Every structure is written in C-alpha cells, then in structure tokens.
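In response to reviewer comment 3 from the previous cycle, which asked for concrete evidence that the modeling workflow produces usable outputs, we include below a single protein chain processed end to end. The sequence was submitted unchanged, and the resulting structure tokens are shown without manual editing.
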Amino acid sequence: MSKTAIVCGAGGFIGGHLVNRLKRDGYWVRGVDLKSNEYGNTNADDFVIGDLRDPRVCESLFDRAIDEVYQLAADMGGAGYIFTGEHDADVMHNSATINLNMVHLSHKHGVKKIFYSSSACMYPEYNQLDPDNPKCSEDSAYPAAPDSEYGWEKLFSERLYLAYQRNYGLQVRVARFHNIFGPAGTWTGGKEKAPAAICRKVAEADNGGTIDIWGDGKQTRSFLYIDECVEGIIRLTQSDFSGPVNIGSDEMVTINGLAEMAMGIAGKPLSINHIEGPQGVRGRNSDNALIKQKLGWAPSMPLEQGMRLTYEWIAAQVEALPRP
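The workflow returned the following structure tokens.
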C-alpha cells in the first residue's frame, strides 16, 4: 500500500515541485493551498482549495490515514514583500496560525512524520553584516536577532514543532531553506526572489540597455536550485535526524555577480543601475557541514547551471506576453 502525504502550500513554487516528486516516489498525495498551482506543476491525487488559517479546513484534510505532512505554506515573498515592514502583521499572524493548526492536527490524527520548512531568515542579523564572511551554521541561531518579522515567525515555529516532538512524540523534521529558485515559480508581481527578478529584467531589456538592482549589489547570497531543494527535503524526512538543518548551496555570489551571470547566459551586455530598495542582510551563505555529517549529502549543482535553466523558462514567459 502506498504512503499518504499532505503537502501544504502545494499551489506554490516549492510545494508544486514536491508534489510531483512524491508522486514519482509512489505516494498518494493531497495538496492544499489558497490557490491552484498557476503553472500546473502539480499532479496531486486530490487538491483542496482552502485557507489553512481556518482549523476546519485543516481538520478536513485528515479524513483518511496520513503518513506524512509537508508544511510549506506561509505568507511570504521576496525582499520587496518581506523587508518593507508593511506586511509584518500579516506575515506573522498568517504563518503562525497555519503552523499552530497543522502541527496540532497532525499530532491529533497520528501522523508519522511532519516536515516544516523554516528559512535562513531566522539567523541573527549580527552574524550577517560582513558580505564576505557570513555565519549561518545551525548552532549560530541564538542569541536570536533575525532581520525581519518573517524570520522571527520562522524561529517561533521551529520551536513549536520541536516542542510537539518533545512533549507528544510527533516525529518532526525541520529544514532552513536558503533562497530556492528555478522554473515554474513566481517571476513577476513583487513577490519574486532575486534570481527570478534578475532573469526577468534581463529578458525584458534591450541589448545595451540597463537593469535596476536594489542597493550597491555587493550584498552576498547563495541560491539553491529547486530539484536539489526537493531532494534535500526527501532525504531529511526519510532520515532519523530532526534538524534544524540548512538546505542550501554554499556557492556564494554577489547580487551584481548574479546579474552579470544572467546577462552572460542571455548574451546581452547590459548596464546596472543601483537604486534604493530593500536588501535584507549584507551577507548570507549556507553552511553545509551539518547536512553532510547527518545525511551524507549536500547540494552540488553549480549556480550557473540552475540559472541557465531558470533564465530559459522566464525568457519564454516574457516572450509569451502580449506585445503593447
């Protein structure tokens, strides 16, 4: 008999890809989200359109025995959404409510394992001021000082899940994602992440034109291609390690460097115009020592390879837009 799983946030980027992977692995999968997946990259056996802030919706998901829950649903977006401060109350209330509902009902209904997607945004800002030497080892999370309310909520929810494990024996797996990107994700509208935004800007620009970058572009990040993110989720969930553990690439790049990489892939020589805008921390990079130790695996795809696949997909979306 196949395993059963619920994927919360299946209408989103990572959730859609995760549903497809679980189906390939032979699971019966129920997806749930406020919306269906806009790029159709979900093959769930059952898809519930519902608001996970509503405990009645969450309760309805457990009308059959569920082996595993993957909780990826959250109120989130790129820097333009998270770091302006304008959405702080919604980000904290909506995401915390979803987590409170899902962890409680997973325990109540005897779920064997629950995976929770935390974020590198929960790491202290004081360890990420030097763009060349950020510190994001898992044990550096405390004393806590995330750079956003999004990060504070993630930290609270990590503790919530691990408390359920200690007190009730619910098997919990917690991963801290580091900037996941790839095809079939948000690429316009204000909630997109840096790789998608840059690919879109490069695809839209004329040769010899200019693209805008927030800040001086010297801030550093690492970016993880979606397939390796999903692989990390599966490996962690099937392991005996609860986490928290980083799931991210340790190939660090400046935002200027990321833009230049996209230009090179596109074959477009463009200028960069640095403008005011939210940036988050100055430096962040995944520390992969723990995941290698605990899982005997770590992401290894070169950033350029993932960017090439992502640029090709976004360029096709741009090309398909109606011309003015």
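The chain has two domains: 4-180+224-247, 183-222+251-286+302-319. We consider this sufficient to address the reviewer's concern, and the full set will be provided in the supplementary archive.
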